[in-house]
Write a structure and sequence with these properties.
Enzyme class: hydrolase
Strand order of the largest sheet: 1-2-3-5-4-12-11-10-9-8
Helix content: 25-40%
Order of helices and strands: EEEHEEEHHHHEHHHEEEEEHH
Protein name: Serine hydrolase domain-containing protein
EC number: 3.1.1.103
CATH class of one domain: Alpha Beta
Oligomer: single chain
CATH topology of one domain: Beta-lactamase
Keywords: Hydrolase, Signal
Number of strands: 12
GO molecular function: hydrolase activity
Length: 386
């Protein structure tokens, strides 16, 4: 059922739903409507609220307990906070609610690595083994040919994970390549962790500190952590299974640049707008290199049309469709799903955080709400990548 609308005089929009349906609150720095082309207009607040209602309906239809959505362009920003942080407690999602960003962490890590490239600390085409003796790959000569560029473009040859990355045995479990490094595309969290360990050895600094200093502090990301911060306990969302069952909240005592970022959609939007679209902290050439296709992201799926429209840059997905060239990434930590997409040439962007295994099912409809009709090759590609 579509929520019943109540508009507060403060300019924020609160939606009260029928029994069993979560509420959605929406705020906008420039109240107005978001039409089929995603541009803010000057219509009354009730038109803006109608967009919030439609987002609420999409989330409810997909069985997603809670979500944050932030849309931005060069002139305005609109934020929507939907539903419940936990169905067990009934706590609402607010703009301060923290979600697991999952693999959106990799984009933050890639940005830090590229800063180090600009500073001459790391050469993307030099084998990481020249910098760091990684005991987990000691038995595999091929792994010693892996470069930073191969890691960022997912051509390292390492598997996604050799064992559970949160397990006690992770640090001592050997990992080997599954193909010759640099010869094909295969998504790899292990590659990013190898790069993390290399950077930590080169700089003498934990990656968590590098991210805090170079990303969180720079962009004012006060609701984000890479190692679990107990100060966020009261605002941390609970992940839910596909049937809505809440899962225990996980702690990340060890940073892993492949997946342990916890953040808000507003914080991630600050990073995306400043670092990716704005290029802050990178030389113009390095920022452009980040968005330059390094090759096909052919994961072997059957949807060849989607594969033909997806390539990989340095730590980030690239999509070409009717709207032009986009940068994007998805995150999947089981009961948390996340997604962002941005068009650097036009400055339009969208961040979605959810606390549900069903989260990615809402992406196409939410993207369409702000960008209008277009072919979402990225989500088609994701379906066969997992």
């Amino acid at each position: 059922m579509v929520p019943v609308l109540a508009v507060a005089f403060s300019g924020a929009i609160a939606l009260s739903t029928s029994i069993g349906s979560p509420a959605l609150a929406a705020t906008s720095s420039t109240p107005g409507w978001l039409g089929s082309v995603g541009s803010l207009g000057s219509s009354a607040d009730d038109s803006y609220a109608a967009v919030a209602q439609r987002i609420s309906a999409v989330m409810a239809e997909q069985g997603i307990p809670g979500a944050q959505v932030v849309y931005s362009d060069r002139h305005s920003e609109s934020a929507f906070d939907y539903g419940l942080s936990s169905v067990a407690t009934g706590s609402p999602v607010t703009s301060d609610t923290v979600f697991e960003a999952a693999s959106l962490t990799k984009v933050v890590a890639s940005y830090v690595v590229l800063q180090l490239v600009d500073e001459g600390v790391l050469d993307l085409d030099r084998p990481l083994s020249d910098y760091f003796d990684y005991s987990r790959i000691a038995a595999d000569p091929a792994a010693k040919r892996i470069t930073g560029r191969m890691v960022l473009t997912h051509t390292s040859g390492l598997p996604n994970w050799a064992t559970g990355p949160s397990s006690p045995e992770f640090e001592t479990t050997p990992v080997s390549t599954i193909f010759e490094p640099g010869t094909q595309w295969s998504y790899s969290g292990e590659g990013f962790y190898y790069l993390q360990k290399t950077v930590e050895a080169l700089t003498g600094t934990p990656f968590e500190q590098l991210v805090r200093e170079r990303v969180f502090d720079r962009f004012g990301m006060e609701g984000s952590d890479l190692v679990t911060n107990p100060a966020f306990d009261t605002v941390t969302s609970v992940g839910h299974t596909a049937d809505g069952t809440p899962k225990p909240v996980r702690n990340f005592p060890r940073a892993n640049v492949a997946y342990t970022l916890r953040t808000t959609a507003a914080d991630y939007n600050r990073f995306m707008r400043g670092a990716l679209i704005g290029g802050e902290g990178l030389t113009p050439g390095t920022r452009d290199m980040m968005f330059t296709p390094a090759g096909s992201a052919d994961h072997g799926g059957s949807d060849k049309e989607a594969i033909d429209h997806i390539e990989w840059g340095l730590g980030i997905g690239l999509q070409n469709n009717e709207l032009g060239d986009a940068i994007w990434h998805w995150g999947d930590n089981g009961p948390y799903k996340a997604f962002f997409i941005a068009y650097p040439e036009t400055g339009r962007s969208l961040v979605i955080m959810t606390n549900s295994e069903n989260g990615l099912n809402a992406v196409d409809d939410v993207v369409r709400e702000f960008f209008g009709p277009s072919t979402m090759y990225a989500t088609r590609w994701i379906k066969e990548a997992e």
